[in-house]
Amino acid sequence: MASAVLVLNCGSSSVKFALYDAESKDRLLNGLAERVGTPAVSITIKFPDAPVTITDLDQYDHHGVLARILQELEGWRAERGLEITSVGHRIVHGGEEFSASVLLDDEAMAAVERCSPLAPLHNPANIAGVEAARASLPGIPQVGVFDTAFHQTMPPVAYHYAVPSEWYADLGVRRYGFHGTSHLYVSSAAAELLGRPLTELKMVTAHLGNGSSLTAVRNGESVDTSMGLTPLEGLVMGTRSGDLDPGILAYIADRTGADVAEITNDLNKRSGLLGLSELSNDMRELIAAAESGHEKAQLALDVFAYRLAKHIAGLAVPLGGIDVLVFTGGIGENSNPIRAKVLEELSFLGFELDAAANDRTVRGASGQITSAQSSAIALVVPTDEELVIARDAHRIAQTTTSLLEA
Ligand code: ADP
After folding, report:
1. Pick the CATH number of 2-146 from 3.30.870.10, 3.40.47.10, 3.30.420.40, 3.30.565.10
2. Residue range 236-262, pLDDT digits in tens
3. Sheet containing 324-328: order of strands
4. Is 147 annotated in the active site?
5. Is a pLDDT exceeding 70 seen at residue 270?
6. 143/102 Cα distance (integer angstroms)
7. What is the pLDDT of residue 402?
8. Which residue of 30, 210, 336 sits with most ligand 1 atoms within 8 Å of its CB, as the best mutation to test the pocket?
């Protein structure tokens, strides 16, 4: 039997999954369950030969969905002699409890529960996923990979907010950062691409997708990042505001009568590129609209790129300069006009664009997009968070199994 790793990313109403060959780390298949928890639940499994969609579930929750996915995979696995020997879970918030991926035993699960107030929309769904996997795959090691873990190396000067101390001491109010798995992956892939050790590089990684964040990486460790207690802080995003004056909350509440929950919802869902453009949160659509003269789309792009450049430059402080800037995520990997604009704004830091390289480095390509004379280097590196989860799950499961056997 060959070993396979099941990677799970459970949201409150969705389950993303993928199966990896544990040795080669090739992705064998992936899929998505949507509308989990409702009778309209559907599961799509992208078998390489013929994708299938399943809608006839009689148990709609995470347990029912995962049990059905595993049942559907059974025949396909058996034909290929594949056995699931570990499960890797994406877990959003690890608070100060987790600085690396871990085996999710009872003690670790209690710690994940303790982090739930910090991510009330995400951690409970992640926990439901772990419980479902434990029930469907008893005895198989479950491993947690945390969005926040990579940033636990940030020094106090970077993670403290200037607020009453007891907010931190009693309630855990501090900057945690997110997208850690992506920042970790692309920083090490970038060093590999350059053929230089991470320890030599002052690097900023820019994960630009629907959610966007930056990380300053020194000696391979996160020393600062743009997201905070929640993924709302920092850059302008698809529908999230990023940084703003906290005084705005009271002002809007006074003027409109909206409560904190409503305003927070607006800042998360009706702001960012969508709020500015009144058109879309999708970068492709905005670039096309701006080209045909849509003024608000143009404003949204300008604010996005300006804030991005300003934040990147800010990370020169913890790094003492920037040698390498890495673009990743849907926008970072594909949107050459945004990259060009940002590098132009950052020319004072020594970035000089190679326009032809920038234009051809899209759709999964990786490589350098600054010229040979450029004193600072910008790269595009496609991210692969699932691969990191698969690697960590297999590595930690193997250690656990050998400890049990010893
Ligand atoms: P998520 O954060 O949901 O994983 P992605 O990393 O897939 O999101 O990024 C989504 C963003 O990437 C969208 O704004 C989308 O418009 C943008 N994007 C994807 N392809 C392109 C492209 N070819 N050109 C410009 N933007 C693109």
Report:
1. 3.30.420.40
2. 999 999 999 999 999 999 999 999 999
3. 221-225, 212-218, 202-208, 324-328, 377-380, 367-368
4. yes
5. yes
6. 6
7. 73
8. 210
